[in-house]
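User: Hi! I have a protein structure encoded as tokens and I'd like to know what sequence might fold into it. I'm fairly new to this, so please keep things simple.
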């Protein structure tokens, strides 16, 4: 069940950042970061109902066919689920800060550069009080005009989205959900996250001299190895993009254990 009350804001012509979050929270009932299964059915039915109420109707009356068309259009990575960045494409919103990031901070390299500036202790988290500066940085880079109240709204909304346990910290893998699906290289590693033991073994294998860091060529070999082990395909362009993004966490071409651990492990290092 989607709950007794109707989903908020679906009838509106445009949504603010906080209204978008209300919609997301309403449908991602189990809080796993996706609208899927029964949640997806509920979302689609309520969206259809809201659109009919607003006078937006389609010629096709078959709900199953409509849903297939809908998923074909919006489920960019074809995993049968809707994630936050995909929902941002669906809902009509003028002040959609997620779309702002997708359109203007489109590359994971830019995102990682900004992240590194704020995650100064390389913990895989930025403190909530640094988030405002991080967002301001990304918006400036995108030449996106904003005022102080709008920046404050974005900051508060992202805090509500990601700081679920209220500890005042935001994780890299969570924040990277602001990126377009096809640009979010961290999502590509979701199905093959390593335990600490596995990570230590693979890092030691490539850090032959025990220096505590690897270079770009060694990272290249490590990524290929990881993909082959997990029987996943990756073309040269993808490999180049992922390597470049990860190397943005490096220090003068040296990728230290902690940085790589943030990307490849289930939990960031403590």
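Assistant: Happy to help. Inverse folding works backwards from shape to sequence: for each of the 270 positions I chose a residue that suits the local structure. Here it is:
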């Amino acid at each position: 069940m989607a709950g007794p009350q109707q989903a908020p804001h679906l009838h509106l012509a445009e949504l603010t950042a906080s209204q978008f979050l209300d919609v997301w929270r309403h449908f991602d009932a189990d809080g796993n970061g996706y609208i899927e299964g029964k949640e997806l059915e509920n979302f689609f039915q309520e969206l259809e109902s809201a659109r009919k109420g607003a006078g937006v109707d389609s010629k096709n009356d078959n709900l199953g066919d409509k849903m297939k068309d809908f998923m074909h259009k919006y489920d960019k990575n074809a995993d049968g689920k809707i994630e936050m960045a995909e929902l941002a494409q669906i809902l009509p919103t003028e002040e959609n800060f997620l779309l702002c990031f997708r359109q203007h901070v489109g590359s994971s390299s830019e995102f990682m550069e900004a992240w590194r500036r704020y995650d100064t202790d390389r913990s895989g988290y930025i403190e909530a009080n640094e988030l405002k500066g991080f967002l301001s940085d990304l918006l400036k880079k995108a030449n996106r005009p904003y005022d102080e109240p709008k920046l404050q709204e974005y900051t508060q909304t992202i805090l509500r989205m990601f700081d679920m346990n209220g500890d005042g910290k935001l994780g890299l893998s969570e924040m990277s959900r602001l990126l377009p699906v096809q640009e979010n290289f961290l999502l590509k590693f979701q199905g093959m996250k390593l335990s600490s033991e596995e990570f230590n073994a693979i890092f030691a294998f490539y850090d032959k001299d025990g220096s505590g860091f690897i270079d770009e060529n060694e990272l290249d070999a490590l990524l290929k190895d990881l993909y082959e082990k997990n029987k996943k395909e990756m073309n040269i362009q993808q490999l180049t993009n992922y390597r470049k993004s990860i190397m943005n966490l490096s220090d003068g071409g040296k990728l230290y254990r902690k940085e790589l651990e943030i990307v490849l492990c289930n939990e960031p290092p403590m």
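A useful reference point when you look it over: The CA atoms of residues 144 and 270 lie 35 Å apart. Feel free to ask if any position seems puzzling.
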